[in-house]
Amino acid sequence: MTPSDFLAALHTAVADLRATAHTQFAALDPALLNQRPAPASWSILECLEHLNRYSRYYNPALAKALAKSGEATASSSEVGYSWLGRKSVEMMRPANAKKSSTLKHMNPLGSRLGAEVLAEFDQHQARLLELLDRARTADLNRKTVPVEFFRLLKLRLGEALEFVVVHQQRHVQQVLRVQATLRAELAC
């Protein structure tokens, strides 16, 4: 896929995630936002807080990589993948039904959360859209983004952008499932 098509697809996906949060979650009652479908499951706000925690790391890391890529020129070659990048993206794709465990510091289970989580999520999405726009002039195949859990490993800029987006898609789908479960319970 060409870099412009790749970035356009990611931009559309992030805009859709942002719209879903506005239309599906913003008007929900705070009690419902914090209700878990099961004791060990995340609530709607816990899912979004998990994404906020990742965004707090990856948005600045992506911005730093983009600032450094000012020295490089945009590549017209297809977006490439390393073994680590391909594995990371495929593991997080929403279609991958295999459950993953999260790192302890990224697990919001039991956190006291309020509407500020939704506002922060929206801010992170707006920032990610800006970063995707800036990436149009960058070489997406340069390895410049350290992996959050082991910073000696680096992803290519394109891989990191896609990883962040598919990770968010995966958890927003989780939020929609939580919401559907809670609504079904309320209807009974």
Structure description:
- This protein has helices at 3-25, 30-34, 44-68, 83-92, 116-134, 157-187, and strands at residues 143-147, 150-156.
- The protein has a single domain (3-187), classed as Up-down Bundle (Four Helix Bundle (Hemerythrin (Met), subunit A)), CATH 1.20.120.
- It has a two-stranded antiparallel ribbon.
- It has six helices and two strands, in the order H-H-H-H-H-E-E-H.
Specify the CATH architecture: Up-down Bundle
Treating each run of at least 4 consecutive H or I residues as one helix, how many helices?
6
Shape label = elongated
Sheet with the most strands?
Answer: 2 strands, antiparallel
Give the name of the CATH superfamily. dinb family like domain
Spatially, the strands of the biggest sheet line up as 1-2
Question: Segments where pLDDT lies below 50 for 5+ residues?
Answer: none
Average pLDDT: 89
CATH fold-level label: Four Helix Bundle (Hemerythrin (Met), subunit A)
How many domains comprise the coordinates?
1
Q: How many β-strand stretches? A: 2
Radius of gyration: 17 Å
Strand content: 5-15%
Span of the ends, CA to CA: 47 Å
What structural class results from the helix and strand content?
mainly alpha
SSE sequence, one letter per element: HHHHHEEH
What is the percent of helical residues?
A: 55-70%
InterPro entries: DinB-like, DinB/YfiT-like
Pfam families: DinB_2
Domain DinB-like: 18-175
Organism: Hymenobacter ruricola
